[in-house]
Design brief:
Number of domains of chain A: 1
Strand content of chain A: 15-25%
Number of strands of chain A: 10
Order of helices and strands of chain A: EHEEHEEHEEHHEHEE
CATH topology of chain A: Alpha-Beta Plaits
Shape of chain A: globular
Chains: A alpha+beta, B mainly alpha, C alpha/beta
Distance between the termini of chain C: 80 Å
Number of helices of chain C: 26
CATH architecture of chain A: 2-Layer Sandwich
Oligomer: heterotrimer
Strand content of chain C: 15-25%
Shape of chain C: globular
Distance between the termini of chain A: 27 Å
Strand order of the largest sheet of chain C: 5-4-23-22-21-6
Strand order of the largest sheet of chain A: 8-1-10-9
Radius of gyration of chain C: 30 Å
CATH topology of the domain at 184-436 and 671-691 in chain C: Dimethylsulfoxide Reductase, domain 2
Radius of gyration of chain A: 16 Å
């Protein structure tokens, strides 16, 4: 199994439902702190938002763990706390093995990890709640809540999965492809 | 009467450094407890910079391993030979300080053994742990060997000495290239990425190792004219020749970055932006130019004042440069949309400053404690528990 | 021996010293913290994630009411909001996702409070009896002096179903909502052109449409159900025309920037192209619209009464091309759409008549694309492209929702609707369609029973006519604006000027006039003049500072209610099921209970007449019995109206959260059923407008609602919404990060003024003089010459909100709005013009 995400940039309306739902589902205790995610100056959640203004129509990007097949964070981790789950293909963190060296945080070129201010250990997608959902064959919360139908999740190895259906129909790009991370997070552009 | 005065003196020479070491440790532990995630924080800040600084200083053992043991340079009147145990103790102390800082940077330092339990061979940091273990084992073994053997026994066991020194040298070179590549393999930080840091760190090892060795050894050598002149000349020579290389490699880094817009985003901050005064004033003017001139003077005139000044400048400038190199390049990294940069900030927190200060207190105190309880000075012999005096 | 002892002494001395040092730095906190981190880690990985209980309900974080399910954890705290798949209007947006923070928000109103100094927010917590009795006695005093009509109630969507009930409860006609600052202009337009009502009454068929033009509507703001249908419609192309790029513009949506206040010119230009290039649906216009009606020079339509003595004034005449005769449009076989000719009236005089379509074209000819370009800033080629695409793709122009912008919005919406009529794309798949009525019972209706007039509630209580009080008197806003649905500004006039009569008491239920209405100073002045001001809400509002009493209402997560599903073309009802009880320390009670209890204490006979028993004073009894009675009555009424089994309906609502009573049937109105317009047809020429003294055709008029910007440092200030904006959502913790409290400025303007992204500036209202500081966001998302600020999210002033709370940042656009109300129609205008000063 190689679980992957697809985000349809043509449909997204920047409603922030996924951003907020991720935080409320996965890190509810942190969201009651004064500084839930100081490193990102953001919600204690795994999705951050950027808008690029390059002179034309502003461009929106939602950024969370890309679940790279050649993940720099996995190579950087000395204790194998960050690893690629052989069953699902997702990049996971086993916090019990983590010593908090922060090499993974530095290594991720997408800035998809953040330091949990309570534990001082790294966090990323999928959070604890969504991990449980995925384990049970369900979609993560961000995919579930999207009102615009702009998110998909599924198995790249399954020809019938929603992600493959979308990949067959549309032009996609992957972010920072030139770095060789081989991410499994596809952006539909056309 | 004389005995009790000597006991008091002995108590002082052990007790004071011991108290200072403990005080330093207390500061470290207290600072660790107060660590927090700051707003927009980068990941590796003052503690990792301090750790790198002490680690590089500890690399100066090659001056002993390579030049003394393997290539057999003992000094014109055997001065190097006399100072050899001090010269091995100093990197051990520096390495322990490096470890204190890196453990303090971890979120779960007591779990460090998981590096060995998990051991990811792709991870530079995993190799750091392994190489440090080999390196310090080699250093400690060398020190024990040097303490336990008399001059005659050493001749007999020359092979053991060379073997230990070679192990230390090889481990050291691997260690410092690996340390450089902890940063150099990060594709996420264009200011670091590349093979160039390895050479840079190896050169820093020579400069900072010699500077640290000169400064610390001078606390003993100062009182002995020929030792004092030897240290001034020898360390001055090493520093003068290697600091120019350091200067060249520093500018090499700047030139390479000039051709890489993503690296230039942060390099420009150092070279012409908000850190330019620190860079040109401290790192280049004091750390390269002034250090070179003072070291040259120290070599030619065997001036202790010159070598102490050169060493101090080199160490200060070295710390500043390491800090800039590690911290500044993390403050602007390319975002997923081209042309955009993810901006982070770094302001060393009180907790981190406390940890660093604690470590800087431990550094000379632990060295002094070693001088007080271990037979490191020329002529001293072990009397208790195999290695203590 | 001695040496060893000395060593031992040294060692122990040293260790003691070390231990003392460590103790002095509180190792329990050091060790404790380390231990805590370990524990937290274990906690996180062992948390009972599958322990969430999901409750199906609908959301109340804005007025759309989309279907959601809320996950509650084992401690009874709401944890996550997920959509209710299958619901015809499924959620959810950013607002809804923040609902878990509303429940136990530190600023949530917890207990009844009495204000010891109005305006100073010196609140003291009191028990319910004290508050309710205090309000009741004050009301009695007011009513004895000024009558029941001196009581006014203003509200928004919360509890809106019960507002007619409150009207009878307090005997006042003055239940006036937010509508003038929302959809009033559009609703009057919908009524005039299509005989339809509020925004959901007609809507584009998003899931089947092929080309959708959004002018003054973002779609991404609210009703995720509608948004979902639009965005999952793979074949739908969307164009949004707006001075700023709304959130939907991030996607594959074409954004056409337009100068504020010029939408009518844009739409009339499209109308011109459609008529000029004959891209209209002639068949539809002939049969189902009043386009072929013959209009006399006085602007009135030619009827049988004009040409024949004793003729029927309701028989509108057209020229039948089939036989060249004037005929009643109902019997004409082929009405000529372009007839211009002479007609002899019954008195023998001759007049030239033109078809309504001809007059429309004459009007639209003033806005040929090149002319429209100079007014709107939109290229002529673009206007032509939109017009042609609408025709060729069988497109639809959205009928809008929030449209209280520039004063001329009534004409804007009329022209949008006329475009749809010209295309003939009415009540067809993919077109502008009428919503199926769910036949939801009114909460109260006037009936004649046994010869007597009574007001009967849905649950069977009857109030005799003698107790009606002032209910039938003219409402203060209708006195000034005859066509209005609600104009709150008239309430302010009645308070300040006491015309047409004084208003002395005001209840603000689930709404915030300072946040939503123009002319902030006027509102505050009015509050100060009132004898009684009561605020019933869930979170602090700026208005609460001026209230005499602030009472905590329940939130949607704590309520049970059955309503119609708003934003679907099907006839559907949905159930709000209780997710949680109020948290400890929050003694919140339904506004329904509050109002009845006040009435019972002030005017017991009124409350009794409407079925309120004394036992309902006990809040638990009210919940168990009264609400139950209400629900059962609604279910019975629906079951009867739809001829379905009541228990089946009840079970479906409890288990699924919704029930679709009837799927959308196309080709009904105006094809099979006449429209509620004077002619029964779609009216491109509005007879109702004519009767009300308004121009029967839309026109572009430059807005007098604000002084137009002229100097290089003067700008339009337009406002709008996003999927994160609502009064309660804007105070939620996530909004600290995802909320946008900046004012947008175009990069060209920013460069000209030397302003960089993130700079603080001072805005000064050109008309109101109000000054405020705000951060500028330099972005391409707003047109040159225009500034944009989100409405509802920022510029909070209430003293109940801490000074450093993020919601205080930014500006409330209403501070700068002059307060101009459209005559007759009664809609407000929230846009304004401001001067920018760099700080």
């Amino acid at each position: 199994m190689r679980l992957a995400y697809v985000w349809d940039s043509r449909k997204c309306i920047a409603c922030m439902a996924c951003v907020v739902a991720c935080a409320s589902a996965n890190y509810p205790e942190l969201m009651r702190e004064a500084k839930p995610n100081p490193q990102w100056n953001w919600l204690a959640g795994n999705i951050r938002v950027i808008v690029g203004e390059n002179g034309g129509k502003p461009e929106l990007r939602l950024i969370s763990c890309q679940h790279c097949e050649n993940a720099p964070c996995v190579s950087a981790c000395p204790t194998r706390a960050s690893y690629i789950d052989r069953r699902t293909g997702l990049v996971r963190i086993d916090h019990s093995k983590c010593i908090g060296c922060k090499a993974c945080l530095v290594a991720c070129p997408y800035g998809a990890r953040w330091l949990n201010p309570a534990t001082m250990l790294p966090e990323k997608c999928p959070g604890p709640f969504c991990s449980k959902l995925i384990e049970n064959g369900l979609n993560p919360v961000c995919v579930e809540v999207c009102p615009a139908g702009a998110r998909y999740f599924g198995d790249l190895d399954d020809p019938e999965s929603p992600v493959n259906e979308e990949l067959r129909k549309h032009r996609v790009e992957r972010m920072l492809e030139h770095l060789g991370t081989n991410p499994k997070w596809f952006v539909i552009t056309g | 009467m004389a005995r009790s005065r000597m006991d008091l003196k002995r108590l002082g020479s052990v007790g004071i450094p011991l108290v200072l070491v403990l005080a330093g440790l207390a500061m470290v532990i207290y600072g660790f407890a107060k660590k927090e995630v700051e707003l927009h924080a980068i990941n590796w800040g003052l503690l990792v910079s301090g750790y790198t600084y002490f680690a590089l200083v500890a690399g100066g053992s090659i001056l002993v391993e390579a030049i003394h043991t393997i290539f057999g340079y003992k000094g014109p009147r055997g001065e190097h030979e006399k100072l050899v145990r001090l010269a091995i103790w100093f990197p051990i102390v520096s390495l322990l300080c490096a470890w204190i800082l890196i453990l303090a940077d971890l979120s779960r330092p007591l779990e460090f053994w998981r590096i060995f339990a998990g051991f990811n061979p792709d991870s530079r940091i995993a190799w750091m742990a392994l190489l440090y273990t080999i390196y310090i084992a080699a250093l400690v073994a060398q020190l024990v060997f040097l303490i336990r053997t008399s001059d005659e026994e050493r001749v007999t066991h020359k092979k053991i000495e060379i073997a230990l020194a070679s192990a230390g040298l090889v481990a050291g070179v691997l260690l410092y290239t690996n340390l450089a590549q902890v940063f150099g393999t990060m594709i996420s930080v264009p200011g670091w990425y590349g093979a160039y840091l390895a050479l840079y760190f190896l050169t820093y090892v020579v400069v900072l190792g010699a500077a640290g060795h000169a400064l610390f050894t001078m606390t003993y050598a100062w009182k002995h004219k020929e030792l004092r002149e030897f240290v001034s000349h020898y360390c001055g020579l090493v520093i003068a020749s290697s600091v120019l290389m350091l200067g060249l490699l520093t500018m090499w880094g700047v030139v390479t970055a000039w051709y890489n817009p993503q690296a230039w985003a942060t390099y420009s901050m150092i070279v012409e932006g908000m850190y330019s005064a620190l860079f040109w004033g401290v790192v280049i003017a004091l750390g390269i130019a002034a250090t070179f001139l003072l070291a040259l003077y120290a070599t030619l005139r065997r001036s202790a004042v010159a070598i102490v000044s050169a060493s101090t400048l080199a160490l200060i400038a070295g710390f500043v440069n390491i800090y800039l190199t590690i911290v500044v390049h993390q403050t602007r990294v390319p975002e997923v949309l081209s042309g955009l940069y993810r901006v982070a900030e770094y302001h060393a927190s009180t907790a981190e400053i406390l940890i660093l200060l604690g470590t800087f207190i431990i550094w000379p105190s632990l060295y002094a404690l070693g001088k007080a309880i271990l037979p490191l000075l020329p002529g001293e012999k072990p009397k208790k528990l195999l290695i203590f005096k | 021996m001695k040496t060893r002892r000395r060593d031992f002494i040294k060692l122990s001395a040293a260790s003691t010293l070390a231990a003392l040092t460590m103790l002095s730095v509180q190792p329990h906190s050091v060790v404790g913290r380390m231990l805590a981190k370990q524990l937290l880690l274990e906690e996180t990985s062992k948390k009972p994630l599958e322990g969430l209980r999901f409750v199906k309900t609908f959301c109340g974080m804005c007025g759309a009411l989309c279907g959601i399910r809320v996950g509650v954890d084992s401690s009874g705290r709401p944890r996550v909001v997920l959509p209710l798949n299958g619901h015809p209007q499924r959620g959810l947006c950013g607002r809804s996702a923040t609902a878990p923070w509303l429940w136990d928000h530190p600023l949530r109103l917890k207990k009844p409070m009495v204000n010891e100094m109005r305006g100073e927010a010196r609140f003291k917590e009191v028990d319910w009896d004290t508050a309710l009795n205090g309000i009741a006695s004050k009301l009695k005093e007011i009513v004895s002096k000024y009558g029941y009509k001196a009581i006014a109630i203003t509200h928004h969507d919360a509890w809106s179903y019960y507002m007619p009930l409150f009207s009878y409860l307090f005997g006042t006609p003055n239940v006036i909502s937010h509508v003038s600052m929302c959809h009033a202009n559009g609703t009057v337009a919908r009524g005039h052109i299509l005989g339809a009502g509020g925004p959901p009454a007609v809507d584009p068929d998003y899931e089947n449409a092929s080309f959708l033009v959004l002018i003054g509507r973002t779609l991404s703001t609210a009703s995720m159900g509608a948004l979902h249908r639009a965005r999952t419609n793979k074949g739908l192309q969307i164009v949004v025309v707006d001075p700023r790029m709304p959130e939907i513009g991030f996607g594959d949506v074409k954004w056409i920037p337009i100068i504020p206040g010029t939408d009518a010119a844009f739409a009339l230009s499209i109308i011109y192209v459609l008529l000029e290039e004959e891209l209209y649906n002639a068949d539809f216009l002939k049969k189902y619209s009043n386009a072929p009606f013959l209009i006399k020079p006085d602007g009135k339509p030619l009827t049988e009464a004009d040409v024949v003595e004793g003729g029927d004034p309701k028989k509108y005449l057209v020229f039948d091309a089939k036989d060249g005769k004037l005929k009643d449009h109902k019997v004409a076989l082929d009405p000529d759409l372009w007839y211009v000719g002479e007609v002899t009236l019954k008195d023998g005089s001759k007049v030239t008549v033109k078809t309504a379509l001809t007059l429309l074209k004459e009007r639209a000819s003033n806005y040929k694309p090149e002319v429209a370009e100079s007014i709107t800033g939109v290229k002529a080629s673009e206007i032509r492209w939109v017009a042609r695409k609408l025709a060729l793709s069988n497109g639809v122009v959205d009928d809008t929702w929030y449209i209280a912008r520039n004063w001329n919005d009534y004409d804007d919406v009329r022209s949008f609707l006329i475009i749809n009529v010209l295309l003939g794309n009415i009540d067809k798949p993919g077109g502008l369609c009428f919503q199926e009525s769910s036949k939801f019972p009114s909460v109260i209706s006037v009936k004649t029973i046994e010869g007597k007039k009574v007001a009967e509630t849905v649950y069977g209580a009857r109030m005799p006519e003698e107790l009606f009080g002032d209910v039938t008197k003219t409402r203060v806003d209708r006195a000034k604006y005859p066509l209005t649905l609600s104009t709150f500004d008239a309430v302010l006039d009645a308070i300040l000027e006491e015309k047409p009569y004084p208003i002395k008491a005001l209840f603000i239920i689930g709404t915030n006039p300072i946040g939503r209405d123009m002319n902030t100073r006027k509102i505050i002045e009015a509050y100060k003049k009132l004898d009684l001001l009561v605020v019933i809400d869930i979170m602090p509002t700026d208005d609460a500072d001026y209230a005499d009493y602030v009472l905590p209402d329940t939130i949607f997560l704590e309520r049970e209610e059955i309503t119609s599903t708003k934003w679907t073309l099907h006839a559907s009802v949905q159930k709000q099921s209780k997710v949680v009880d109020p948290p400890k320390g929050v003694d919140a009670r339904d506004a329904l209970w509050i109002m009845f209890e006040i009435a019972r204490r002030a005017f017991p006979e009124r409350a009794k007449a409407l079925g309120w028993d004394d036992k309902y004073a006990d809040y638990e009894v009210y919940k168990d019995e009264f609400l139950h009675k209400l629900d059962e009555a609604i279910l019975s009424s629906l079951a009867k109206a739809w001829n379905i089994d009541k228990e089946k309906l009840k079970t479906a609502l409890e288990e699924e959260g919704y029930y679709v009573l009837s799927k959308k049937k196309y080709y009904v109105r105006p094809y099979k059923t006449a429209l509620a317009t004077p002619s029964g047809k779609a009216e491109i020429y509005s007879l109702a407008a004519l009767a009300a003294g308004l121009d029967p055709l839309p026109d572009y008029k430059p807005p007098p609602a604000y002084t137009p910007p002229k100097a290089p440092d003067e700008f339009y200030l337009v406002n709008g919404k996003s999927p994160l904006t609502s009064f309660q959502a804007s105070l939620m913790e996530p909004l600290r990060f995802v909320g946008d409290r900046s004012v947008w400025m175009n990069p060209k303007d920013a460069e000209r003024l030397g302003i960089r992204d993130g700079d603080m500036v001072e805005l000064e209202g050109i008309d109101t003089g109000w000054k405020a500081r705000v951060r500028i966001r330099v972005t391409e998302r707003v047109r040159e010459g225009v500034l944009f600020a989100y409405a509802t999210v920022c510029g909070r002033m209430s003293k109940l909100i801490p000074k450093d709370y993020f919601a205080r940042e930014g500006v409330n656009p209403n501070w700068f709005a002059k307060g101009y109300v459209i005559p007759i129609v009664g809609g407000g205008a929230s846009n304004s013009s401001v001067r920018v000063r760099k700080l």
